[in-house]
Amino acid sequence: MARSNRPRRSTAPAPRGGRSNKWTRPELGSDEPWLEKARYGVQRLQDAPDGQWHVRKISATGAAKTYKCPGCDQFIKPGIEHVVAWRADHWSGDDASAAARRHWHSKCWDSRSYKY
Questions:
Q1: Beta bridge mates, 51
Q2: Comparing 87 with 4, which gets the higher pLDDT?
Q3: How many other β-carbons are positioned within 10 Å of the β-carbon of residue 54?
Q4: Other C-beta atoms within 10 Å of 104: how many?
Q5: Sign of CA dihedral 83, 89, 95, 100
Q6: The pTM is what?
Q7: What is the pLDDT of residues 44-82, one digit of tens each?
Q8: How far apart are CA 77 and CA 26, in angstroms?
């Protein structure tokens, strides 16, 4: 019979009080502002000749999907640091602008043309 590399689960019930051991943290609500900043990066407002933009840096550890950069039309692979940008002054509101956000390579965002 083949061996499994998974550790065996203990059959003992979890201790009372909500924690399984001294190293685990209690579950936090998603409305914690520091938790959102840690997960998604710090959002800043950037002025440009083509309007105001919300810009958020995504760390290499936070980049989990593949995106296509609109600046160079190349793919941003998982594990690559990049920025997410969306308009702050969108004509149809914040929800529509957040839905139209784009992932850019950091250099592409910094050197983009304002002719779009």
A1: 48
A2: 87
A3: 18
A4: 23
A5: negative
A6: 0.60
A7: 888 888 888 889 999 888 888 999 999 999 999 999 999
A8: 33
For residue 100, is pLDDT > 90?
no
Tokens of 109: 């965002």
Cross-strand bridge partners of residue 67: 76
The dihedral sign for the CA sequence 23, 28, 32, 37: positive
- Cα dihedral: 23, 29, 31, 36 (round 10): 40
d(CA 82, CA 58): 5
- ∠ CA 35-30-26, nearest 5°, is 80
Per-residue pLDDT reduced to its tens digit, 9-43:
666 555 555 555 544 554 545 556 655 555 566 67
SS3 45: strand
Buried b (16+ CB within 10 A) or exposed e, 64-96: eeebebebeeeebeeebebbbbbbeebeeeeee
The pLDDT score that the predictor gives to residue 113 is: 73
